[in-house]
């Protein structure tokens, strides 16, 4: 743990949920959100999140490299992207409350998948570039919901900034039957795997 504490952690995201998850495992990142224009070449959820996480991490890494005058110690940039997929189709953030209701209707009573892609790019103590990219998948099972429950949730503000129109850590927890995989991955970052990958790289 002491070795990792000596590594500067940069999160290429403004997500408070990701920052909290890193803080939970003792990592306190500098927040430097990526401004790169996203470019997707795949339709497979697992590949999409890896592509997007790579683009975000590379964007911020390049900015840091441009500002560094000399080797000032180890650092790693964490880029991440999360999508919800139903039968292989990616559900983004809802554009309206009606769109949120449509998504929840698709998910209720069934199993779907949440994918988070993570890219780590940095430099070790010797100044050598280190990097890795991976995707984590969690299966989520949602209880059947009636029309009133769907519209009550969809018309709240909770789903509006979330992929798939729900937050597992919020009110929607009332409708989660079970998950198979990493809970934190559904929140937005597989924190345990991130920690282990940083250990492996450094």
Features:
single chain, about 200 residues, alpha/beta, seven-stranded mixed beta sheet, 7 helices, about 35% helix, elongated
Structure in a nutshell:
Helix content is about 35%, strand content about 25%. The chain has about 200 residues and is of the alpha/beta class.
Backbone structural class: alpha/beta
- Helical percentage: 25-40%
Beta-strand content bin: 25-35%
End-to-end C-alpha gap? 11 Å
Question: What is the number of beta strands?
Answer: 7
Instruction: Give the topology string: H per helix, E per strand.
Output: HEHEHEEHEEHEHH
Q: So how many helices?
A: 7
Average of pLDDT: 95
- Enumerate the spans where pLDDT stays under 50 for 5 or more consecutive residues: none
Main sheet: strands, sense, barrel: 7 strands, mixed
Outline, from the CA principal axes? elongated
Query: Whole-number radius of gyration?
Result: 18 Å
Tell me about this structure.
With about 200 residues, the protein is α/β, with parallel strands linked by helices. It has 7 helices and 7 strands; from the N terminus they run αβαβαββαββαβαα. The chain has helices at about 1-5, 15-25, 45-65, 95-105, 145-155, 185, 190-200; strands at about 10, 30, 75-85, 90, 110-125, 130-140, 175-180. Strands 1, 2, 3, 4, 5, 6 and 7 form a 7-stranded mixed β-sheet that branches. Helix 4 crosses helix 5. The longest helix has 23 residues, at about 45-65. The N and C termini lie close together (about 10 Å). The mean pLDDT is about 95.
